[in-house]
Amino acid sequence: MQASRIKSWLSQPDAPTIIQECWLLFNKHLSSGEEPLYDSAQLNNPKKLCLPIPHDLYQLVSSKQCIFYAHFKFSGVTFSQYSTHVGNSLILFYSGGNVSSPPVPGCIKYIIVHNDIIQFAVNHHPPASVGVYDPFSHYPYFPTCLYDVKLSDTLELVQPLWVMCHIARW
Predict the structure, then answer these.
(1) In terms of Cα–Cα distance, which of 51, 87, 47, 93 is closest to 69?
(2) Pick from 18, 17, 19, 38: which is nearest to 27 by CA?
(3) 109 FRET partner, CA 20 to 30 A, in 92, 126, 138, 143?
(4) pLDDT tens-digit readout, 15-56
(5) Are 61 and 114 in contact (CB under 8 A)?
């Protein structure tokens, strides 16, 4: 409970600059990822921090540096990269923004600014293997599917508007 109060206090938008810097250090310290992580409060900061692009993301992004975030809040919903918060990284999204196709489950690996747009680099969850028992098949009005827990190796750039909701995984 005390940690959430400290986190709330550190993330206040009207906090002094030194407190905002403490928030960045706090956020970086609690993140388990290998890449340096920065909070989305820095989005409007004129001193944007550009970092080298990881190898797996380089194929999707045409530049050599990018701005990375640990968290991003969109329409009141917090999204996080997997290395920061697993629950906030699991999403159901429309691949390519095509809402006429069924949504796809995925996991946010990176939150980046690319072409001045916040985007998520997402690994897909492939469908469950053939022959795996689906306990939800008995409930036709409950739209739930099983997917493989192993993530695909390829990344897809997803805009926050394409995200339908968060999902659960266990």
Answers:
(1) 51
(2) 38
(3) 143
(4) 666 666 665 566 655 554 433 334 445 455 444 456 788 888
(5) yes
